[in-house]
């Protein structure tokens, strides 16, 4: 019998309620979530903060992904970051609590992806070329630019996370 895998998210059709121009952003976020979820039941907590060859840890990638989505979608709404968001940014490389597991961090990321998808559903496509500002320096971007960057940044870190996780798992098998 042939192993039939689900097609990638973007090949499964439009996501209900997401504006047509934002479908690629939603597909990208959901694809990253699916791929990262593959390790949820088998990644050992003791390796979460390991840095093989000095690369960023799996734990960092999970925390950073949640934080960067929160920040970029905040800027996309035309808002500034809160003190809580700025504090989170400073702690992304650190274990949030003793015994924190892959699943704990994945749940945090999943919640952030769900919030992002909800925001996409509420986005008026006519605002996508409007200027939005990033950071204290108020660097100009566009609404669409921020949403697209959130998607590609998520994919980049998801790839790094997956490679690091595979390397770490291969060392214990």
What is shown here, in short?
The protein has 173 residues and is mainly α. It is built from 5 helices and 2 strands. The chain has a single domain, classed as dinb family like domain (Four Helix Bundle (Hemerythrin (Met), subunit A), Up-down Bundle).
What does this structure look like?
It is built from five helices and two strands. By secondary structure, the chain is mostly helical. The longest helix has 30 residues. The chain is globular and about 50 Å long. It comes from Dyadobacter arcticus. This is Damage-inducible protein DinB.
Evaluate the radius of gyration: 17 Å
Structural class based on helices, strands and sheet pairing: mainly alpha
- What's the tally of helices? 5
Strand content: under 5%
Order of helices and strands: HHHHEEH
N→C terminal distance: 28 Å
CATH class: Mainly Alpha
CATH fold label: Four Helix Bundle (Hemerythrin (Met), subunit A)
Structural domain count: 1
Organism: Dyadobacter arcticus
Protein name: Damage-inducible protein DinB
Domain DinB-like: 44-161
Pfam family, one: DinB_2
